């Protein structure tokens, strides 16, 4: 799939996963095996992105030196020189390598398992009509949101909670909090950082770097405003360019679409 179409599909609600075979030539990857990660936390700039797994990865105990493991995420990039990372935010430690150096096979997988239930632009006719959104809430569906910020960067995140007025059309959305290493949301210097990191990597090894964790969280309102984690203690009011809300497609809905 061409890159622009893939990025557009992610913004439009398709779920993203990585499907890979860790290179069995590396002793830590033996025996050869298949694996996959759900990549639910995504930052998109133009036609490039970083996609991160949930921060719950732990090593098997036989690989530990008598210590408890630290939970971590895996981060994969498209358009950033094939950079990947294992990120332990509680330890402020990130291990960088290259996708091609760690995997003998790596593929992106898209799944059309969410449907659009609200769109701020009105292009789909769903900006004033919350009928489908309400039905999805009452059906107990899971939600995610795509938000385009003032600088044109998109974030795609799972939703923690939606509050929709019982007798009205106003609602608000609070996302899950994604703990990215600080260099990734630093858009202005990102390419420079990637160049420097790439120069440190000695394939197939990881290179360890210390970095701070940046909470990416959005409280989004149907009136076109939002605030971030850092705005919680300020009075800042921001205006998004576009927001799309998606809900999972239940088995009964899938059947009706066939």
Question: Layout of SSEs?
Answer:
Elements: H1 3-11, E1 15-22, E2 35-38, E3 41-45, E4 48-52, E5 73-78, E6 83-88, E7 93-98, H2 99-102, E8 103-111, E9 114-119, H3 131-138, E10 143-148, E11 154-164, E12 171-175, E13 178-181, H4 190-200, E14 207-210, E15 213-216, E16 218-221, E17 225-228, E18 238-239, E19 242-248, H5 251-257
Antiparallel strand pairs: 1-2, 1-8, 3-4, 3-11, 4-5, 5-6, 6-7, 7-14, 9-19, 10-11, 10-19, 11-12, 12-16, 13-15, 16-17, 17-18
Question: Can you characterise this structure?
Answer:
- This protein has two domains: 3-111 and 182-211, no CATH class; 114-178 and 215-257, no CATH class.
- Helix content is 15%, strand content 41%.
- It has helices at 3-11, 99-102, 131-138, 190-200, 251-257; strands spanning 15-22, 35-38, 41-45, 48-52, 73-78, 83-88, 93-98, 103-111, 114-119, 143-148, 154-164, 171-175, 178-181, 207-210, 213-216, 218-221, 225-228, 238-239, 242-248.
- Strand 16 and strand 17 form a beta hairpin.
- The longest helix is centred in the last third of the chain and has 11 residues, at 190-200.
- The two termini are 24 Å apart.
């Amino acid at each position: 799939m061409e890159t622009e179409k893939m990025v557009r599909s992610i913004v439009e609600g398709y779920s993203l996963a990585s499907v890979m075979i860790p290179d069995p030539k590396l002793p830590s990857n033996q025996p050869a095996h298949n694996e996959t990660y759900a990549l639910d936390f995504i930052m998109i700039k133009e036609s490039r992105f970083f996609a991160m797994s949930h921060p719950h990865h732990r090593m098997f105990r036989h690989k530990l030196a008598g210590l408890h493991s630290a939970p971590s995420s895996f981060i994969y990039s498209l358009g950033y020189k094939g950079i990947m990372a294992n990120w332990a935010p509680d330890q402020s430690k990130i291990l960088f390598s290259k996708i091609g150096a760690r995997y003998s096979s790596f593929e992106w997988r898209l799944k059309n398992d969410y449907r659009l239930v609200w769109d701020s632009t009105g292009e789909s006719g769903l900006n004033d009509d919350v009928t489908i959104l309400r039905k999805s809430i009452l059906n107990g569906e899971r939600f995610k949101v795509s938000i385009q910020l003032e600088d044109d960067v998109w974030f795609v995140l799972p939703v923690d909670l939606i509050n929709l007025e019982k007798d009205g059309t106003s609602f608000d959305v609070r996302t899950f909090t994604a703990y990215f290493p600080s260099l990734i949301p630093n858009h202005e210097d990102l390419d420079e950082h990637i160049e420097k990191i790439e120069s440190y990597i000695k394939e197939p090894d990881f290179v360890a770097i210390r970095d701070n964790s940046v909470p990416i969280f959005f409280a989004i309102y149907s009136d076109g405003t939002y605030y971030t984690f850092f705005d919680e203690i300020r009075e800042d009011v921001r205006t998004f360019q576009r927001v799309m809300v998606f809900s999972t497609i239940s088995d009964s809905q899938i059947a009706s679409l066939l």
